[in-house]
Amino acid sequence: MGRLEGKVAVITGAGSGLGRAMATRFAAEGAAVLAAGLNEDAARAVVEGLGKEAAPVAASRRVDVTDEADCETAVAEAVARWGRLDVTVANAGIGAPGFISDLHKADWERLLAVNLTGVFLCAKHAFRAMRRSGGGAILVTASVAGLEGTPMLGAYGPSKAGAIQLVQTLALEGARFNIRANALCPVWTQTPMVDAVVSGARLAQEQMRSRLVAGIPLGRFGAPEDVAAAAVYLASDEAAFISGVAFPIDGGHLAGHLTS
């Protein structure tokens, strides 16, 4: 049996990057998965790629996490299909790299709408469904940028810090209902969002990659599969006594800096 056998999960931002890796791994571990994404075709392709064995216990739908009706309907569809909701991963997110002094107000507001308000809306409706069914696990894709200041991420970092604090409050409010909440905090990970940061830098791409990797003691970018493995653990019953944590997946980044 898989580590998530019998569980029902909704994953937002499932069409690419971390969301695709988590949807794929969750299904492999036995979960029924609703892959939600703004790009419906990409989310559908993820489900189609799971193979015939997983097809009966996976579905996709278009979800804009800034639209409360979309978030509520995604939860309702999972419950209607499979009878309950055990895990929600509020993973959808966007970036807006740039110095604070150069950021446009519209970019700031859009980023907060997706990365923080979107997390709130997904968690709100997941919480309601889990309370009715006796408990569950809410996971939020945050970032090490929510735990420390990071140049060029003056909007992204605060949005992730807010998501981490929201997770802590969810953990406290959910305890009496057997609802756990935890934040996944990756460092630079090989995803389309990070590729965009690297390609948009003023430095040459390889020079920029080398500079970012220099801050990771294990000497490489994270892989989406690294984050998916952590998500499986936190969603599973093995993590039944873990709630309210910001879980670094960072190759030792937050431990300090190498001197040589």
Topology:
Elements: E1 8-11, H1 17-28, E2 32-37, H2 40-48, E3 58-62, H3 68-82, E4 87-90, H4 105-133, E5 136-141, H5 156-174, E6 179-186, H6 192-199, H7 205-213, H8 224-235, E7 246-249
Parallel strand pairs: 1-2, 1-4, 2-3, 4-5, 5-6, 6-7
What does this structure look like?
The protein has helices at residues 17-28, 40-48, 68-82, 105-133, 156-174, 192-199, 205-213, 224-235, and strands spanning 8-11, 32-37, 58-62, 87-90, 136-141, 179-186, 246-249. It is of the alpha/beta class and 260 residues long. The N and C termini lie far apart (45 Å). Helix 1 (17-28) links the parallel strand 1 and strand 2. It has a seven-stranded parallel sheet with strand order 3-2-1-4-5-6-7, sandwiched between helices. It has a single domain (8-191, 223-248), classed as Rossmann fold (3-Layer(aba) Sandwich). The model has no long low-confidence stretch (mean pLDDT 93). Helix 1 packs across helix 8 and helix 3 runs parallel beside helix 4 (105-133). The chain is 43% helix and 14% strand. It contains eight helices and seven strands.
* CATH fold naming: Rossmann fold
- Cα distance, first to last residue? 45 Å
Annotation, overall tally of beta strands: 7
How many distinct helices? 8
Topology order in helix (H) and strand (E) letters: EHEHEHEHEHEHHHE
Strand fraction band?
Answer: 5-15%
Quick one: biggest sheet? 7 strands, parallel
State the secondary-structure class: alpha/beta
CATH class: Alpha Beta
Helix residue percentage: 40-55%
Quaternary state reads: single chain
Low-confidence stretches: none
For CATH, the homologous superfamily is named as: NAD(P)-binding Rossmann-like Domain
